[in-house]
Design a protein that fits this description.
mainly beta; Thrombin, subunit H; Porin; 2 domains; 22-stranded antiparallel β-barrel; six-stranded antiparallel β-sheet; 4 helices; 60% strand
């Protein structure tokens, strides 16, 4: 009897298991690999869910982050490495039908008509929509600068700025990036012979993501992987090969005098690098070469290097270098730009930064033909070092100090700058924020000491902010016995009209002996964002 009871339990358990979910493996093919994501294609993703783990070579390798009807976007796990056309496996659950349950059918009579129901099985979002998501943000501002004085001529200026970053417009492969500025000088001194109407295009380009790992950019753009190159008017093509990438650049340098388009300044080059994006480590390293011409003749030829990395979210390292390799036997190779910086966060209350830079005069051999001898004779590096420390000894207190030194490589024209500050983020009893600072700068011809205090607070919470400040500046020139003291009194308000509209007005009075200068600055800003789509 006991054995019979055991057999009944065993077969009951087996039937129960069979009636529940059975597992099944489905295979997918890796189609694209970028620095951040891996794209896998399946016949169908009906039984795959966000958060599922895919295996490669029997090892947990990929985690699903989003899905379309036939594709999965994944992130790497366990330092796994996959390449295009690799096969990965998903383990899914399939419901086993209960054979003992009779199939229920419906029959219609002549007198009873059942309406037909059409089920839309089209996925809500296509594969392209799952890969490219629209993200738009931008800002438009209009500002006026007005100066009136009892001893100087009045000056008035209007300034307009427009910036837009529109990634994957309409969930498409197209993106637009721009930064434009217009300045109009309404009144100026009689001997002012410069332009009074200035329009600058700092950034204006269209990017097409032909593939998740291949992009083509046309227009004016500064490449973030080589910021020291400056803007390029033309084409940039970049392709990723897993963690590695390569790119080509072709176009024109902006005019060196007005930053406009100049068809005589053709430039072209290329670069390659590696990018690692792991949980505790991010790194991007780029090495490239550039040829810059003027009317077809070589103007400058150089190699550039840039590295940026973040280790365990606490240590950030950045470096860039430019090595000129054109100039004949007289000049040889020249290290024209070297910048190194390290920033470390010891804790939430302490962080520090150190940087070093060394820069030489850039020589364009065609553009500055008449000045070559002068530039080569004065081929000195202007170098500097900077140290900064920020400390938070209490929840509402920040203290900081920085020191910088700049000089030529022959130790001439040296200057030292010391800056210290203290900030009380919330003043007990009266609320608001208080900041005091002091700056001392010494050079071979001038010593300056500037002390300032600023108080700011919310007048209407979330709507209206205000601040007032006082600054005292003293200047002592080496070739003069007199010390000049200048006082500044100022303040302003910032009104958040709505989430996207802001208006601010600031005023300042500066006094120097018998001279009084009144400055007013007003600005209206409109921000805009892409609307979130309902899912």
């Amino acid at each position: 009897m006991k054995k019979l009871f055991s057999c009944i339990l065993f077969f009951g358990f087996a039937l129960g298991v069979l009636a529940q979910d059975a597992t099944e493996s489905v295979h997918g093919t890796v189609t694209f690999v970028t620095s951040n994501n891996v794209y896998v294609r399946f016949d169908t993703t009906e039984d795959i869910n966000v958060g599922d783990v895919l295996k490669f070579n029997e090892t947990d390798c990929l985690k699903v982050t989003s899905l379309s009807s036939t594709s999965a976007v994944c992130t790497l796990l366990n330092d796994c490495s996959v390449t295009k056309d690799d096969t990965v496996t998903a383990t899914i659950s399939k419901k086993t039908p209960n054979k003992t349950t009779p199939e229920i059918t419906e029959t219609n009579t002549i007198d009873e008509e059942v309406p037909k129901t059409t089920v839309d099985v089209t996925p809500e979002y296509s594969e392209e929509e799952s890969l490219y998501k629209e993200n738009i943000r931008g800002r438009v501002s209009v500002a006026s600068y007005n100066l009136s004085s009892n001893v100087r001529e009045n000056r008035n200026r209007l300034q307009g700025r427009f910036s837009l970053t529109a990634n994957h417009i309409g969930d498409s492969k197209f993106s637009v990036d721009s930064y434009l500025a217009y300045r109009s000088i309404l009144s100026s001194p009689e001997d002012y012979d410069a332009r009074t109407s200035i329009f600058n295009v700092y950034n204006l380009n269209v990017r097409y993501d032909a593939l998740p790992d291949l992009s083509i950019t046309a227009g004016r753009k500064i490449n973030p992987k080589a910021t020291s190159l400056g803007a390029n008017d033309g084409l940039m093509v970049e392709k990723y090969f897993g963690k590695f990438y390569a790119g080509i650049i072709g176009g024109f340098r902006p005019d060196i005098f007005d930053y406009g388009f100049n068809g005589d300044l053709l430039q072209y080059g290329g670069y390659f690098g590696i990018e690692t994006d792991a949980k505790e480590f991010y790194s991007q390293t780029t090495l490239g070469a550039m040829e810059q011409t003027n009317n077809g003749a070589t103007d400058r030829r150089y190699i550039y290097f840039q590295h940026n990395s973040t280790i365990a979210t606490n240590l950030n390292l950045f470096s860039s270098m430019e090595l000129d390799i054109f100039g004949g036997e007289e000049a040889g190779s020249r290290l024209t730009n070297l910048y190194l910086s390290a920033r470390y966060r010891f804790s939430k209350a302490v962080n520090a930064m150190i940087s070093y830079d060394s820069r030489k005069q850039i020589i364009y051999y065609q553009t500055f033909q008449t000045q070559l001898e002068q530039f080569l004779d004065d081929d000195l590096a202007r170098q500097g070092i900077r140290l900064r420390l920020n400390v938070r000894p209490a929840k509402i207190v920040w203290l900081g100090a920085s020191y910088s030194n700049r000089s030529q490589s022959d130790s001439q024209n040296e200057s030292n700058n010391i800056y210290v500050y203290a900030t009380l983020t919330k003043i007990p009893a009266i609320s608001g924020r208080l900041n005091v600072s002091y700056n001392n700068n010494t050079s071979r011809y001038l010593t300056s000491n500037i002390a300032s205090v600023r108080y700011s607070r919310a007048i209407v919470k979330g709507k209206l902010q205000g601040d007032v400040y006082y600054r005292n500046a003293k200047y002592a020139y080496e070739n003069r016995d007199e010390t000049f003291a200048q006082n500044y009194f100022g303040g302003g308000i910032n009104w958040s009209i709505s989430r996207t509209w802001q208006f601010s007005v600031n005023g300042e009075l500066s006094t120097l002996n018998e001279e009084n200068n009144y400055r007013f600055y007003t600005r209206l800003t409109k921000r805009f964002y892409s609307k979130k789509k309902k899912r």
